[in-house]
Specification:
This protein is an alpha+beta fold.
Length: 1008
């Protein structure tokens, strides 16, 4: 069989193996994070969050048709789309590895003999399958996210670079460069990571077109590649659209023409310029200029997939993030202005103080007849600014984290050395090297690590090394040893990759530097560019998948390195076979064995089912306030795709500060009527009432919210305060607010259960909990004033309490959401807020409506899924407790037995151990002693083992797991008291003994 046929056949075999693996392990419905949004948007061709992924959405829409009209199958088939993209990535990786290997080995012989062919094919199979089973790539391959398709674009481009290198001297060989440009343009409509291959392309062109390459010349070539990358990233992606926007500004505002006129004229000018450039280069016989214009043209053609965003935004779909229907909103959308920028070359220390403001370019929005200036972009100037700032963020809890990480005192100023230390130890060590080791050495567990030793770290499986790295291996709990996400590779894939890199640089430094550039620009260069702050909401390893892809090439080439070493002892053919077999076992087979159980999501429906629970917690036609990605995107999915509870209006509080989102809330969607927002669009448009401050005027009385809203929306100077610059703006004159209540209105709208009608308050009286009113709070005030209790108002259970605006006392749980009711909670039974629950709604919701995503029996629960177990347990225990106080013991027993059926046996975290204790306590109270004791016994074993482990690793790090230690000791103490109260002598004695032992350890290692 010919070499090319074998190469093609084995490439497709690797592709099929990978694709089948991903299809078998993919999540059958929507996943957490962005997947729900992407699936909903792809299904109905809607607009996702900035900066968008239109090509990805259009291609995923094609896969949705394979569901054959079954809405519940649409997510599955879109996940299959990611699986197919990932499988094709493995195909092109295989061909890339074999092309690189052949280019090195074919120097010795024009004809490839059998032994050499085995080496090459073995390298391709081992490297490609190693990447197929790598943690980061596998995770993205089984869900509908952009990273699988982005990896495919990177794989195709890198493969095409080698194709051009091989055919550069052939007639028409430069068509490969045009093809690369087109794929890069298309990839912009998926994700920008693909563009990081450009410096590698520049290096290949230099080596191919230069007779006597030098280190200096190669360096210049790479720098030119970086310039080209910048020209595409900013010049084409941003400034092309920016130029179109300012053209439109001139034609609309200065010439009085319609919106879009300038964009059309600018587009025609660009097309004309490209055509002229191509024709000129042909006429003057300038092939390089011709190639430049062709590549530029095809990049722009690929980039034109973003026209889908403008076209669909004009149609006002349900999901229309940023509403980019005109030049300036589209420019803002592409620039991710909603998320802000991180400083790269110059910025402050986290404890620096702003001393001045630097104003930049003007900002505009679309008005009724022309563009209107809304303000100016600005940046602060600080008293302490540095070059290459890495510890710059003063928001949230970031300053405390910086101080903890760098061992700084409470008022100690950080130095430039601290800045660099954070860069090397956290941004590179924690946020890149740790992920790299996950993929090729092993992973401790899938709990997110913020720098502690027990969560999210890398391990190898080699005891003495892991002991030095994370400690406590002699005390490792059974739950940690059997954790599905604990993967141990014993450094073997890493060593094989290092062998491959060494062999590659030794045999062909030019080609090795090409892979090295890809490795750097898709790894450490991203670290430099992102300049990440600490306490990220999720692990960010997906950003570095391209770097792991490059290392997988070296894993494959490691087979050839091993083969040539074996060749010193045995013949070349046998050496190649042995090296291939060994490579398969120490990389892909080992990685597949270890990784299968924690990448198999095939039995899990958590995100989808919990989204249904959020919605089914609400009464008909409800308004449901959510906050984050995971209590919003899955809800969008089940509403838009599976048509679950389309009557509920989901309002994301994080987006409600944007004027475009408030405008959309004023329109009906699906089966939900428009929100009762009375404000005219001009009253909350960008640049107007963006941020209204509280000014204390000493008002003690509670003022009607209706009157306060009138002041906030007033255009009278008397209702505004004057700023130092002479301008006037609205303000909040008091935090003491009230809403008068008409009990008949409450009863007629079924706001409260019939049993509580005699408890309806005369007014809702509360203290607002913020020092400002943003557009979000302004909209909520408007809704509260004008809703007139016609529509139920809920806050999702996962909304931060400070977003309740101080209304906490009037919120009652009906499941996965709190309902606003004009009934103030009362302190009863040992100061317990028992009325936090509305059992009359929550009981039927829990017992008859809610579904649990197979959370108990799923083969694997990811971090986000098992993180919801606490919420689920809390729902059961709070409901059961409320029923017991009402004297409904039989119903409480049913609730707790349902909890036992739903909640997994496995304990995932120390906080879950506390929640399970609460389950056990309630089970005792309802007479289920055997089930309670089973939970207590499991808890006792878990806490005993883990606290021994924490003490072992914390000997020289007393603060390392102090919170978990204290939580475990508290839980044990509570278990001891409850078992003593219920006269369980044997279990109580066991708990006492464990508690005493751990207390002695605790005293020997006191928190500091």
């Amino acid at each position: 069989m010919e070499y090319n046929k074998i190469n093609n056949l084995l490439g497709w075999v690797c592709c099929i193996i990978a694709t089948v693996t991903y299809v078998l392990t993919l999540e059958p419905s929507a996943s957490f994070w962005d997947c729900g949004e992407f699936i909903a948007a792809a299904y109905k061709m809607q607009i996702v969050h900035q900066p968008g992924a239109p090509l990805f959405l259009m291609l995923q829409n094609i896969f949705s048709n394979l569901a054959l009209g079954k809405p519940e199958q649409i997510a599955y088939w879109m996940n299959v789309g990611s699986a197919v993209s990932s499988g094709l990535t493995i195909l092109f990786l295989f061909w890339t590895i074999t092309a690189l290997a052949r280019k090195v080995l074919s120097k010795e012989s024009a004809d490839i003999d059998q032994a050499t062919a085995i080496k090459i094919m073995g390298a391709g199979v081992v490297g490609a399958l190693a990447y197929a089973f790598s943690d980061t790539f596998w995770f993205s391959a089984v869900e509908s996210e952009v990273y699988a398709m982005s990896s495919l674009c990177t794989a195709v481009v890198f493969w095409a670079i080698l194709k051009w290198d091989r055919h550069a001297d052939d007639p028409g060989g430069d068509r490969w460069l045009v093809f690369i440009a087109y794929i890069m343009g298309l990839s912009i409509g998926v994700h920008l990571l693909n563009l990081l291959t450009i410096p590698a392309l520049a290096l290949v062109i230099y080596y191919r077109k230069t007779d006597k390459p030098s280190t200096k010349g190669a360096t210049v070539a790479v720098l030119i590649g970086c310039v080209v990358l910048g020209l595409i990233l900013w010049g084409i992606i941003q400034y092309l659209i920016k130029a179109a926007a300012y053209f439109d500004l001139f034609f609309v505002n200065s010439l009085g023409l319609g919106f879009g006129t300038g964009v059309i004229i600018f587009t025609l000018l660009v097309i004309s310029g490209l055509i002229y450039g191509i024709l000129y280069s042909i006429k003057k016989d300038k092939p390089r200029l011709n190639l430049i214009f062709l590549c530029l043209t095809f990049i722009i053609i690929g980039y034109s997939s973003f026209s889908m965003v403008l076209i669909r935004a004009k149609a006002d779909p349900t999901l229309n993030n940023n509403d980019p229907d005109n030049a300036f909103s589209f420019l803002s959308y592409l620039n991710r202005e909603q998320y802000g920028d991180n400083p790269l070359l110059k910025g402050p220390y986290f404890d620096a103080r702003p001393i001045d403001i630097n104003y930049g370019e003007k900002t505009y929005r679309k008005g009724t007849e022309k563009y209107i200036q809304t303000g100016q972009k600005f940046t602060y100037q600080y008293d302490r600014e540095i070059f290459f700032p890495r510890i710059y963020d003063s928001r949230d809890n970031h300053p405390q984290f910086y101080r903890s990480w760098l061992n700084l005192g409470e008022n100690e100023q950080p130095s430039y050395g601290d800045n660099l230390k954070f860069f090397f130890t956290y941004q590179i060590g924690q946020m890149y090297a740790r992920y790299f080791m996950w993929n090729f050495v092993g992973r401790q567990n899938d709990e997110q690590g913020h720098g502690n030793f027990t969560n999210g770290n890398w391990i190898s499986g080699i005891k003495f090394i892991d002991q030095m790295h994370v400690g406590g291996q002699d005390k490792l709990p059974e739950a940690a040893r059997t954790n599905p996400s604990r993967n141990t590779f014993y450094f073997l894939p890493l060593i094989l990759g290092m062998i491959g890199a060494y062999w590659h640089f030794k045999r062909n430094q030019k080609l090795a530097s090409l892979v090295g550039l890809l490795f750097f620009f898709t790894g450490l260069a991203i670290v430099l560019y992102l300049n990440q702050t600490p306490l990220q909401p999720r692990e960010r390893d997906y950003a570095y998948a391209g770097s792991f892809y490059a290392f997988a090439i070296w894993i494959g080439l490691g087979v050839i390195g091993l083969s040539e070493w074996f060749q010193k002892k045995i013949n070349a053919r046998n050496a190649a076979l042995i090296a291939t077999g060994l490579g398969l076992f120490i990389a892909p087979i080992l990685m597949a064995k270890e990784g299968w159980n924690d990448h198999d999501r095939s039995t899990k429906y958590t995100a989808r089912d919990l989204a249904k629970n959020y919605l089914n917690s609400c009464a008909p036609n409800a308004i449901l306030f959510t906050y984050g990605d995971n209590d919003t995107y899955p809800l969008w999915y089940v509403q838009e795709v599976e048509n679950v509870r389309p009557d509920v209006r989901v309002v994301n509080l994080s987006l409600l500060s944007a004027d475009w989102y408030v405008r959309q809330m004023k329109e009906p969607v699906n089966e939900s009527a428009a929100l009762p927002i009375s404000m005219d669009n001009e009253q909350f448009v960008q640049g107007t009432r963006d941020f209204l401050r509280y000014q204390d005027y000493g008002i003690k009385d509670h003022i009607a919210l209706k009157d306060i809203l009138g002041v906030l929306l007033s255009d009278k100077d008397a209702d505004k305060q004057q700023n130092p610059d002479g301008s006037r703006e609205n303000f909040l004159p008091t935090k003491n607010l009230t809403i008068p209540i008409d009990s008949e209105e409450i009863i007629s709208n079924d706001v409260v259960p019939q049993e509580w009608e005699n408890r309806i308050a005369d007014s809702i009286t509360w203290t607002y909990n913020k020092d400002y009113v943003s557009r979000a709070e302004l909209a909520i005030f408007d809704i509260l004033v004008h809703n007139e209790w016609k529509r139920p108002i809920y806050f999702a259970l996962t909304v931060p309490s400070d977003s309740y605006m101080g209304l906490d006392d009037y919120l009652y749980s009906e499941g996965f959401a709190y309902r606003l009711m004009p009934i103030k909670q009362e302190l009863k039974d040992s100061d317990t807020m028992i009325d936090k629950v509305n059992p009359y709604a929550m009981y039927p919701n829990t017992m008859d409506k809610f579904v649990w995503g197979n959370i108990r029996n799923a083969s694997y629960l990811d971090h986000e899924s098992y993180g919801m177990i606490n919420v689920i347990i809390n729902n059961f225990t709070s409901l059961a407790n409320s029923l017991l106080i009402e004297g409904k013991t039989a119903e409480a027993r049913k609730v707790m037995n349902k909890a036992v059926e739903v909640v997994p046996e496995r304990i995932y975290t120390m906080r879950q151990a506390l929640q399970k204790y609460l389950m056990g306590e309630l089970l005792l109270k309802v007479g289920e002693t055997e089930k309670a004791n089973h939970i207590f016994s499991s808890n006792l074993k878990y806490i005993d083992e883990f606290l021994n482990y924490y003490f072992a690793i914390a000997r020289n790090k007393p603060n390392l797991e102090n919170q978990n230690i204290q939580l475990g000791m508290y839980t044990l103490n509570e278990m001891e008291k409850i078992t003593s109260e219920y006269k369980d002598t044997k279990l109580n004695e066991n708990i006492k003994n464990v508690f005493k032992k751990l207390e002695n350890l605790y005293m020997a290692n006191p928190p500091q």
